Amino acid sequence: MRRTAQSLRWFGWYAVSTGIVAALAPNLILGFFGLPATSEVWPRVAGMLIGFIGVLHMNVSPINLQRYALATVVLRLSVPLIFGWWVLSGLGPWQLLFFAGADVVGALATLWGLRVDQQAGNSRQTSAIAR
Q: pLDDT exceeding 90 applies to what percent of the chain?
């Protein structure tokens, strides 16, 4: 799962760096997307969680858990659907959809990696936990 592991690692780095910025300076990210500044703690909480997810991706990537990788694809592809629902329901601004872009790109990269690794014979489970 060489390509799959690389995609998870790179997405992990993206999530960690985004999470750090969101946790320490959320208004920097909000302003970049044209959203109003806030003094609420929730963007910081979201940043922390995003960073933690990134750390998980980086730590799982070397052990080649194919099911984990596939689960991240499904979850990341659900992000634009959920965000879209929130926007259409009036629960969030349209700019929320910008945040889904990285999830879609990352999911497609992991999906591509799974396919390449499967064709190369590199798709293996190395943990009984994922069986």
A: 82
